[in-house]
Amino acid sequence: MEYLKQRTGFSNILQRNLGGQYVVVNIAKNGWNTTDEYQAILSYPYKPKKIILSYYLNDILGAASQLGYGSPVRVERPHNRILRFVTDHSYALNFTYWRLYRFYNKDLGEKYWEFLKDSYSNRNIWEAHEAELSRIVTYTQSQGIDLSVVVFPNLREVKAGAVLTSKVAEFFQKHNVRVLNLEPLLIDRDPMTLVVNSLDAHPNEALNREVAELLTKAIQAEDR
């Protein structure tokens, strides 16, 4: 599964599309927040020509946590060590466990979404997050690195989250950063055509491919 993700993520498709023109490097880890991303940019040993930042709405949670606003949602893996090991190593049991977990915790997604919306409307959290994003913008501009940002909406609530994605897009545009805001493109689509499955709200293979094609066209147009 991990190998499949590596082959079908938009950065990998972008590399195949661009061929020898560019070397596309994906620098990311699960759980990173904006500060982690900034540190990764600083510590990368080579100066890139371009950086494409993937922005997800939960990127604000690092700033919220720093200010003491912890998420009310706790998704728990099995407490039993044997059961945890089995679910980690069996696709069928993993699928069954998380299906049951979701059934008995039906309000988790709603609580999480409300917390995200509250974070964007909280002035202190948003200003702290703006400061995080500004560090990335300032650094790339001072180094002559071309920064672009892909803003992913909440793929299950694209229309309901439009005010959030617009807020993020407007921040970057105000700082003369090129933005690919996916919200207008996806707003009328069936959410199940965008996500991996009902348990995994990450962008699916088709959406990754679509994003890669849009980025390929933009980069090739710049190089003409």
Low-confidence stretches: 1-5
Mean pLDDT rating: 90
| Shape annotation | globular
**Amino- and carboxy-terminal Cα gap:** 37 Å
Give the strand order of the largest sheet, numbering strands 1, 2, ... along the chain.
1-2-3
DSSP summary: helix tally:
11
Give a verbal description of the structure:
By secondary structure, this protein is mostly helical. It has 2 domains: 2-69 and 122-223, SGNH hydrolase (Rossmann fold, 3-Layer(aba) Sandwich), CATH 3.40.50; 71-112, no CATH class. The protein has helices spanning 2-8, 10-18, 34-43, 61-66, 81-89, 91-104, 108-121, 123-142, 162-174, 183-186, 205-223; strands at residues 50-56, 146-152, 178-181, 195-197, 200-203. Helix 3 (34-43) runs parallel beside helix 8. The N and C termini lie far apart (37 Å).
Write the layout of secondary structure elements.
Elements (H helix, E strand, L loop, with lengths): L1 H7 L1 H9 L15 H10 L6 E7 L4 H6 L14 H9 L1 H14 L3 H14 L1 H20 L3 E7 L9 H13 L3 E4 L1 H4 L8 E3 L2 E4 L1 H19 L1
Parallel strand pairs: 1-2, 2-3
Antiparallel strand pairs: 4-5
